[in-house]
Amino acid sequence: MNTTAISNVQEVNFDGLVGPTHNYSGLAVGNVASMSHGGLVSSPKEGALQGLLKMKSLMDAGYAQGVLPPQQRPDIGALRDLGFSGSNSDVLARAAKEAPQLLRAVCSASSMWTANAGTITPSLDAPDSRVHFTPANLQSSFHRYLEPQTTGRVLRAIFRNEQHFAHHPVLPATPAFADEGAANHTRLCGEHGEPGVHLFVYGRQAFGGARSGEREPKRYPARQTLEASQAVARQHGLTDAQTVFAQQHPEAIDAGVFHNDVIAVGNGPVLLYHEMAFLDEEGTLDELRAKMATPLIPVRVPQEAVSMEDAVASYLFNSQLLSNPDGTMTLVVPGECQEREAVWRTIQDSLLAGNNPISEVIVKDVKQSMRNGGGPACLRLRVVLSEAERAALTGRVLLTDALCDELTAWVERHYRDRLAVDDLKDPQLAEESLTALDELTQLLKIGSVYPFQLG
Asked: Is residue 181 within 8 Å of 147, Cβ to Cβ?
């Protein structure tokens, strides 16, 4: 672990491309937006273009931006593992008739929310001075449990150089080690090139009984376990002095806050959070203050300003908090924040006018993602990289004007304007998806990462 600041270090936001089978199946229990929009007609093309527009606008504003490909969907191999046989058309038709919920699960485009892809530790925090990756097992939901193997291949394909990058196995896919990735992990520091403290947030403890004062949600399941967070920290070589483990407030989970990034967001020394984010708010802040080398800047939003209902509906805390060279910060919020009067008033009167580094708010339309419960912060995986580490990346994954133009044309060629849940059984959709993904891997120059490419 480095103890001094390193220059030329950047936080790169790797956004997930919205996949060709993006649909509204209402699969995510505890995700209010996903459940309430189940059955609506989606637009994969609009979703992918909205995501690309967000990426390009941030790139144009000077932020480092990367791209991660979607998963192979529908996952016909998963249906075959579950006993469906015959041609691909036969498998899809039989699943649609006998187990429509399974068909919807294997068509999910949920990998677009790359905040769940895994947990990353920058090289300056790791004992071997390499960037460490652990793909999340996502075992809490079947449609997401299907992702980690491909996610691991994608991460290893891009971050291939063993001198700079270390990859760890997915945690055991059992309830005791339920891991939802960086959606429950925040690195806090002074500048990105300085050592950081890692805040891991969990919903429940699996072994040994609850800690003093802990309790669990009653309405929706807690997805992240303390044991999973501790295991990832051990894999990455993080010490007690570098980590804080805090329990998410169970009442927030029951209100639809299925991940911590729906109720809190941090970057640099700033932690923007709702007062219901942590079960032990003061204890969490005190431990962060004690372990951080740079003073913590907590930005607390009280319940009387923004209710839990407004927080979940607007995804204010699922915004991107971005650091600027002059020490200020930019908050990238979904358009839904403007639709809730209390939220928009809080942004203007408390955040922008408050005593904190947040100096700018950018509003982005990501409605196709939001209707499934994913805001701007869900769509990105943050990876802190030095100049040498950025140079060591494999493939063509850092966004440029040329790459953005090519990806936009790729979406226009391959994506459907409308997709109803009933369309998921269409074998032509599967063929369209495979054709698109094969072309995408060539465009990104990442090699063969999908099951159909590996034989």
From this structure: no
37 catalytic per annotation: no
Q: Name which of 166, 288, 306, 303 is nearest 237 in CA terms.
A: 166
Check if 147 is active-site.
no
- The answer to whether the CB of 185 falls within 8 A of the CB of 201 is yes
Separation of alpha carbons 10 and 396, rounded Å:
18
Q: What is the pLDDT of residues 427-436, one digit of tens each?
A: 999 999 999 9
Report the topology of domain 10-73+108-454: L-arginine/glycine Amidinotransferase; Chain A (3.75.10)
Which candidate in 107, 189, 378, 404 is catalytic?
A: 378
Neighbours of 452 (CB within 10 A): 14
Residue of 11, 147, 180, 389 marked catalytic: 180
Between the alpha carbon of residue 247 and those of residues 44, 212, 226, 284, 354, the distances in Å are: 36, 11, 8, 9, 27
Write down the domain spans for the chain: 10-73+108-454
Question: How far apart, in whole angstroms, are the C-alpha atoms of residue 296 and residue 298?
Answer: 6
pLDDT per residue as tens digits for the range 164-201: 999 999 999 999 999 999 999 999 999 999 999 999 99
In whole angstroms, what separates CA 435 from the centre of its chain? 26
Q: Which of 198, 259, 274, 414 is catalytic?
A: 259
Mean pLDDT for all residues in the chain: 93
